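Hi there,

I know you've been waiting on this one. I reran it after we fixed the sequence typo, so this is the corrected version. Both the input and the resulting structure follow.
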Amino acid sequence: MKVEGPALCLGPDIDTDVIIAGRYLRTKDRSVWAAHVFEDLDPSLAMRLPGTIIIAGKNFGCGSSREQAAIALKEAGVRCIIAPSFARIFFRNAVNIGLPVLECSCPCRDGEHVAVDLGGGTVLVGGRVFPTRPLSPRMQEILSAGGLVEYWRKRR
């Protein structure tokens, strides 16, 4: 599975409260979550997310285990998230809703072209290649299906 898009570069320790603030969780309207992604970090980020690949620092998705954080990013149009490390629950929530995540440490500049090979274990950022451990075949199947629910529906 391959994913491409422009980079959106973020720092370390991006927690789920920064991804989607708790004040927006009173609704189940995913478009509201997408419109307010990263609002407390930078109110202009939500508009820049469609089609991007987020490259962040360590510990992405730390904090509360709210599944809405991964959903909000996917609904906002994020194609993939790359970071040296993720909070474990965020990583699984992302895979389960069909949002590719990959552990890799790679420097970037906003807007640089990023190409990710989830099965081959490479990340290409602005022409530079960064090797990484590929996702397991099962995780790739879940992502290809569009998430865990769709994966199981197709298997029934």
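Quick highlight: The two ends are 23 Å apart (CA to CA).

Best,
R. S.
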